[in-house]
Amino acid sequence: MRFSTKIGLSATAAALLIGPLLGAAVFLQTRSVLLDRIVHEEVGIASELMGDIDQVLHKAADELKVIIADGELREFLKSPAEHQEKTHKVMGELEERAKLSGPWDGMYVFDTSGRAVFALKKMQSCVDTLNPLTRVAFDSALQGKAYRSDRIVCRRTGRLGIIFAEPIHSSVNFNQVVGVVMGEYAWSPIQDLLENVNVAATVHLFNSTGEMIGKRSTDRLNDNLRKHLRANATWKATPGGEKYAILADTSHGGENWLVLDSQPGTAGWTLMMDEPLKMLYAPITVLARNTGLLVLGVLLVTGGSFAILVRRFIRPLAELVEGVRLVEQGRFDQQVMVRGKDEFGELAGSFNTMVGTLQKTREELVRKEKLAMLGQVAGSVGHELRNPLGVMSNAVYYLQTVLDGSDKSVKEYLGIILAEITRSEHIIAELVDAVNTRSPERATHGVAELIGQIIRQCAVPDVVTVTLDIPETIPPLRVDARQMQQVLGNLISNGVEAMPGGGTLLIRALENRQEGTVRLSVQDSGSGMSPGVIAQLFQPLYTTKARGIGLGLVVAKNLTEINNGRIEVQSEPGKGAMFSIILPGKYEEGCRHG
């Protein structure tokens, strides 16, 4: 047997022995890293969800405190007979306050005898009379203690809710309780939070006694898993104090589950998530099997080759292994040298292509994950903030009307408040636009006309000179005018802000007949940007401004792309920046290549 053959067979035997062991070790290590990442992500989701639930409970309790803060209500309850003429006035003020709260299925004010004095929310509910459910809440509040129940089911209406009760203290003697305000808060806000959790695991909410009080409508509670948890679960703790365990569910053939238990919220409630490990590990299991088959085939072919071929293959194979190692460390900027046009050369080229694709995919995944996170909060944040901002705006308008003759400083401060409310509404609109991009309503628009409308709408300071370079031969665009005005307006505003000391803003239009496109560029003479900043410009929540949330360019990119265009940026430190949007032009028949 020739020496080269011995080397080939020896290498093959060693590889067949070491390869599976190394593959198993890598697979186990990868699985451990994946588990840690999943636990970290689900811990973050659980903590955020419990925080949102606590906010809902605090909001409901605060709304009752606003009701009982009425001084005339306290005087009325202390001496009803002496203040009988104020009944309608007190009722009117309470109803106005109640309109700004909710959702409440019922809200009533009781005197110390348990008689309902005022009905603020007159829907049929469990709190309009004292019953076994409400007696505990009434007695607790009568002793001066605020009360909050777990989730209850109203037998009269079948609705889910939470009972809140607050004592009403005398305005003269705070230790004296003169009445109780009690409300049935709807369960729907908490249920909406559970339904909108973006996680593959099942999600269940438990009270302090371990009873399940909430879950997503699509989730099913694994009762056998709960019994196993209470019996012999070995919990591990995360740095934040959350607990998780890996259990075998005997009802499913010993299938292993990942179970996460959150830290208790202010109400003593906890959140449990569970998911089968087989589902979590499915991607890497398929990858490991396919990779193992591929490696085995390569080893068998290599082992049957002569020593000279083995020697020839060692160098490119070592380079590929080094490239894989670098990619495993997250260095996607590395390229493997392609030597020749044989199989290894093709493999190196394919590897380089794959690495480039992975880099783009990872960047897009990061962007989409951020947008998904924004999507989870956009609806609730927009709803929760727009209502109070609207109330504040109306209040400022009212104060400006009634204080029309007041001194100049009062008007100035009211103007500042109104400006900040408008800015907050703009931030909310940007947040919603970043994740909810409407379909464009395309129409044909001239470039000069479109840019002229935008310039007239933008506030350009006197220290900035705007120069337009728009040839008359530029073909029109078929785009959504409002969306393009928003994109170009954002780029112009950014250019102006990049030149606080003044400068030149050049707006130029160029056509490319071969591609059938029109390039609209906005170039400033500001301080420019480094390559590191440019690489992150279109990532959600990234901003270089002192005041900003990093969504303007994200919205601009989204709007440009849905109008069949793309956005590019060129900049160097100290040489300003140029943002360009490339859009398809509308050419007459036969004129594109003329």
Which fold does the CATH topology of the domain at 443-584 refer to?
Heat Shock Protein 90
Distance from N terminus to C terminus (CA atoms, Å) equals 73 Å
Q: Mean of residue pLDDT?
A: 76
Strand tally is 18
Query: Count of DSSP helices?
Result: 15
**Which range best describes the helical content: under 10%, 10-25%, 25-40%, 40-55%, 55-70% or over 70%?**
40-55%
Query: Structural class of the helices, strands and pairings?
Result: alpha+beta
Q: Specify the CATH architecture of the domain at 443-584.
A: 2-Layer Sandwich
Tell me the CATH superfamily of the domain at 443-584: Histidine kinase-like ATPase, C-terminal domain
Stretches where pLDDT falls below 50 for ≥5 residues? 1-5, 589-594
Features:
594 residues; alpha+beta; Beta-Lactamase; Heat Shock Protein 90; 6-stranded antiparallel beta sheet; 5-stranded antiparallel beta sheet; 50% helix; flat; disordered N terminus; disordered C terminus
Structure write-up:
With 594 residues, the protein is α+β, with helices and mostly antiparallel strands. Among the domains are: 69-190, Beta-Lactamase (2-Layer Sandwich); 373-435; 443-584, 2-Layer Sandwich (Heat Shock Protein 90), CATH 3.30.565.10. Helices cover 50% and strands 20% of the residues. It has 15 helices and 18 strands. It has helices at residues 3-68, 71-78, 87-99, 132-142, 188-195, 223-232, 277-280, 282-303, 307-328, 343-402, 408-435, 447-457, 481-497, 531-536, 552-562; strands at 104-111, 116-121, 147-153, 160-169, 177-186, 202-206, 212-215, 236-237, 243-249, 255-261, 270-276, 443-445, 464-469, 477-479, 503-512, 517-523, 566-571, 577-584. The strands form four sheets. The protein has a six-stranded antiparallel beta sheet with strand order 7-6-11-10-9-8, sandwiched between helices. A five-stranded antiparallel beta sheet has the order 2-1-5-4-3, with helices on both faces. Strands 13-15-16-18-17 form a five-stranded mixed beta sheet. Helix 11 packs across helix 15 (552-562). It starts with a helix and ends in a 10-residue tail after the last strand. Mean pLDDT is 76; it is low at 1-5 and 589-594.
